Amino acid sequence: MKILLVFDFDNTIIDDNSDTWIVRCAPDKRLPIELQESYQKGFWTEFMGRVFKYLGDEGVREDEMRRAMTSIPFSPGMLELFSFIRKNKETFDCIIISDSNSVFIEWILEAVNFHDMFDKVFTNPAAFNSHGHLTVENYHAHSCKRCPKNLCKNVVLVEFVDKQLQQGVNYTRIVYIGDGGNDVCPVTFLKKNDVAMPRKGYTLQKTLSRMSQNPEPMESSVVTWSSGVEIISYLQFLIKE
Q1: Binding of substrate: at which residues (predicted)?
Q2: I need a surface site. Which of 21, 107, 150, 174 has the fewest CB within 10 A?
């Protein structure tokens, strides 16, 4: 009987947004106005595809991008939290569901030797093409009206939990650690034993705070965090229960 820990990546594991951070590699550390203005709501991955093409055309290479990514700071206490989870891996399964991309996440986690701690990473697949340009695709297609076109985190979470159940893995509870607007959808489907852990002061926490006024509040409990150390304390409490 294990606890499933679900992590978002940007502004949760790392203390910034990997997609906006990569702009530091651009000439003058900014994108041309016409490229900035080409973004359409709900189509972020397509926009990032154009950003990566622009960077490639400007001669930005893989090693430079990797250096930029591995310079992003981790959120406070996050590496301590990872060490705690690794020591208690018989109690926890860990997955990431993120709107970043597979290349960035792999680089960042490998740099601190925590890539092997996660059982699964669900994100937009990325790769370098024959021209040395980074390309990115949508993770999947879905019919959820609340989520961006490329990723509904709730669909991913439900499918993962169902698949695990078919293989005889039944989680006693799910703990969802996130910060953003695209974490609202999966969090609202959590059940009574589950725990939503929104980062204090970020969109997810503000949205859940508003939703708590609803006549039908969420089933799960909500515990906010500012540092991974607070998450450790809460997980220690869950293990003892």
Answers
A1: 19, 99
A2: 21
